[in-house]
Amino acid sequence: MEIDIEIDDLTNCLVKRSTGEECDTQYRLISKTITKAESEKMMKEGWLFDWSVPHSHGYEVYELLLKGSDLRQGLIAIRHIRDQLYTNIDIVESAPENRGSCGKYQGVGAHLFAIACKLSWDVGNEGFVQFKAKSNLVEHYKKTLNAQNIDEQNMFIDSFAALNLIKKYFSEEA
After folding, report:
1. Sheet holding 14-16, edge to edge
2. What's the CA gap between 89 and 113, in Å, rounded?
3. What own/partner pairs with CB < 8 Å and gap ≥ 24 does 160-167 have?
């Protein structure tokens, strides 16, 4: 799937736009498969993608949360390709209330990519992450994430760029 999340800012965590307050985050694996009915409910709430699909294609889905809250701020679907030493991103999405320049929290998109890089590092893929970008966002991902092209739309984040994201969002763990 083509990734089309806007990277609004590289923040230390999520930042509440209305106040500038930095909010601590956590992420977790959604171990229970998201059903078609649950995904349809999510779409009625404003989510854009059918989140029931990634699990059926062997992807793990992680949710980004504010510490102490169960309210999802974003979701990312990844699969580790161990024999080729990279992690593939299928879908990345900010919660409906975080989209655009008026979204409630900024930093969601970059934080989700940082999670993918960290998990890639943790499984021995040295932070390498691959994804297919919408063509109009290729340059945006080069500038904001230091991603590089494989071909016209397929891109990757290498170990160096991954470490920068990991240190930015997980400084206490890096």
Report:
1. 22-23, 14-16, 105-106
2. 9
3. 161/117, 161/127, 162/117, 162/120, 162/121, 162/126, 162/127, 162/128, 162/129, 163/117, 163/121, 163/127, 165/10, 165/110, 165/113, 165/114, 165/117, 165/118, 166/114, 166/117, 166/118, 166/121, 166/127
For residue 21, the model assigns a pLDDT of 94
pLDDT confidence of residue 9: 74
Instruction: With CA atoms as reference, report the closest residue to 30 among 69, 86, 76.
Output: 76
pLDDT, tens digit (0-9, with 9 covering 90-100), for 103-129: 999 999 999 999 999 999 999 999 999
Count of alpha carbons within 13 angstroms of residue 27, beta-carbon side: 24
75, 61 in Cβ contact below 8 A? yes
Query: Which two three-digit tokens encode residue 143?
Result: 């500038």
Please give the share of the chain, as a percent, with pLDDT higher than 90: 84
